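Recap quiz, item 2
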Amino acid sequence: MRIVVAGGDGFCGWPTALYLSKQGHDVTILDNLVRRKMDDELRSNSVTPIASLEERVVKWKELTGKEIKTFIGDLNHYDFLKEVFRQTQPDAFVHFAEQRSAPYSMMDREHAVFTQTNNVIGNLNVLYAIKELAPDCHLIKLGTMGEYGTPNIDIEEGYLEVEHNGRKDKLPFPKQPGSFYHLSKVHDSHNIMFACKIWGIRATDLNQGIVYGLHTDETDMDPVLVNRLDYDGVFGTALNRFLIQAATGHDLTVYGSGNQTRAFLNIKDTVRCIEIAADNPADRGEFRVFNQFTEYFSVKELAEKVQKVADENGLPATITHLKNPRIEAEEHYYHAVNTKLRDLGLEPHLLTDEVLKGILDSVITNRNRVIKENVIPSVTWK
Ligand code: NAD
C-alpha cells in the first residue's frame, strides 16, 4: 500500500513509519517539524538524543534498502498538502500530525488558539484533500480516549445505543473532554463523521490511550533511529515521566489523589494497531471508531509499579502528591470497551515489571540530558 504518515517525525509517527516500511509498504512521511521547535520554545528536550529526520531516513535506507520519502511542510498549507497527495496518491493517510499536549493547549489564549487552529484546520484540509485528490484513500486518524472524559457509565467504541421516550437510536458516544487539546480532537471527530456522511470518505478514528515505552524492533536497530522520549511537565505523559523521575532521583509526582484512571498502551501496540487499521479499511462512507488501548490503571498504581521496579534496581524513589494543576475528577468510575482491535488480531504487550525495567534501562543511559527544572508541572487549568 502507498501510505502517508503525517506527523512521522514524532513519538508515535516515527516508529509507525519504520514498522509499515518494514512490512513492505511504500511509506511517505509528512511533517513540519513543529514538535522540535516546541522543545526550543519550552527550553526542553527529548531524553534520548534524536537525529534529524533526514539522517533518520538515510540510516533506514542504509540498513534495510527501503526508502521512506519525506515532505517537510504544514497540513495547514493546502497547496503543499495537495502536492503531497498528487505525488503520492495514498491508499491510506495516517494522521498523527497534531499538537498533542493538554498542558500546552492550556498555557494561555495563544496556545489554545494555536492548538485548535493547527489541529482542526489541518484535519479539515486532509478531509478536503482526500475528497478532491484521493477519494478512495482510507483516513486513519489518531483521536484520544480523553475525548470521552470519565462518564459514570461504560465507554463504548464510538457509539451508544440509546432508548429515549420509547424510541431507539445508535448515537455518537457523548464527549466530555478535559482540555482545549482534547476538545480539538472532538471537533476533528465531528468533522470526519460529517465528511464520511456527505462525501463517502472511509475513515477510522483511533481513540488512543496514553502511549508508554520508547523502542520498537525497528527503532532499536541503530542509535540514529532512536525514538523521542518526553518527560517535561508539558509533554511528558504519566508512566514515561515517572520512569524518568525515578532514573534521575526525582520524586514521582502524582497529581492530586492519583485515583484518576486512564487507558494505556505500549508504543509497540500503537504501530501494530495502525497496521491492523490499514489492512482492514473502513468501507466507503463509514466512520469507524476503535478504542486503541490495552489496559487501564490509576495514576497512583502506575507510580507504585515504577517505584517497585526502580527500587529493585537500586533507585529508591518517593511518591509525592502535588496539588493537581488540572481540573479533573479524582474519584470516578472507569470502564471502557476495547474489543474491536483485539478481534482484528491485536496481541497486546502488557505492562510487566520486565517492560518497565527495559524502559528504565534506556532512560538511565541518557539521564544526564534531563533538565530537572522542567519536570514539575508549570501549567495550571485555572
Ligand atoms: P508528537 O508531538 O511527538 O508528534 C506529532 C508530530 O506531528 C510532530 O512531529 C509534529 O512536528 C507534527 N505536526 C504537528 N502539527 C503539524 C502540522 N500542522 N503539519 C505537519 N506536521 C505537524 O505527538 P505523538 O505523541 O507522536 O502523538 C501523535 C498523535 O497521536 C497525536 O495526534 C496525538 O494527539 C495522538 N495521541 C498521542 C498519545 C500519546 O500518548 N503520545 C495518546 C493519544 C493520542
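The chain has one domain: 2-374.
Residues 94 and 140 are 5 Å apart (CA to CA).
End of item.
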